[in-house]
Design a protein that fits this description.
Helix content is about 35%, strand content about 20%. It is of the alpha+beta class.
Length: about 220
């Protein structure tokens, strides 16, 4: 089903404006590096797309993504906040944007795509450097894997549910270990050092709490 969703978005001319994030991004890292050593088990029914710059999506683009998803048997789901998700029997599609400032907490409308998107903290980490993966004749944008790993670490420290906290943490650690094997230790060190000091402390605290601070050593 993911391939069908991406193909529909490709045909609609939408892929240039969105970034595939969440668990499915991990799948595309394995494809990009052409490695059998990194094949994460995808255990989610969610497909999350990030819109890095919603204001830069031209209003005259006027794509009707709701109709695109209806053609794939998705239906609109309205939650109390006003956010619209698209649900099928097996998948849920949601759009996200980086939260600016303190944020209002409410969804915003992206006129050019005719959708609503949920602002979330730290998503700017996933929009600054992007990786383009060739997939079935399409160009799929995913976050830089180093940035994604540190994002997952930071988010894990904000989770309340133990299972989601553990899932985010394990995703980050597995990805960092894989990237080090790919010769990207300097990239990891450089990215960590580029983070704001409070974020560095947060990452170090999370790793130290899990007795895994050494993963940043020799990086």
């Amino acid at each position: 089903m993911l391939k069908r969703v991406l193909k529909k978005l490709h045909d609609a001319g939408c892929l240039n404006h969105i970034v595939l994030v969440g668990s499915w991004a991990s799948y595309f890292y394995g494809l990009y590096f052409k490695s059998h050593d990194y094949r994460p088990l995808i255990r989610t029914s969610d497909i999350d797309f990030l819109i890095p710059n919603p204001r830069n999506v031209a209003p005259d683009l006027d794509l009707n993504l709701g109709r695109v998803f209806e053609e794939l048997d998705f239906v609109k789901h309205f939650d109390r906040s006003g956010l619209i998700k698209y649900e099928s029997k097996s998948l849920t599609i949601e759009f996200l944007v980086p939260e600016i400032g303190r944020g209002s907490g409410g969804p915003i409308k992206v006129k050019g795509l005719n959708i609503t998107a949920q602002p979330l903290r730290f998503l700017n980490m996933l929009s600054e450097d992007l990786l383009v993966v060739q997939y079935e004749g399409m160009r799929i944008k995913v976050p830089d894997p180093v940035a994604y790993a540190f994002y997952k670490l930071i988010v894990s420290g904000r989770r309340f549910k133990k299972d989601k906290k553990a899932k985010d943490y394990d995703t980050a650690i597995d990805l960092i270990r894989f990237l080090k094997k790919q010769g990207m230790s300097r990239n990891i060190t450089s990215y960590f050092n580029s983070l704001p000091k409070p974020w560095q402390k947060k990452v170090s605290s999370i790793l130290e709490g899990a007795n895994n601070l050494e993963i940043l050593e020799n990086a």
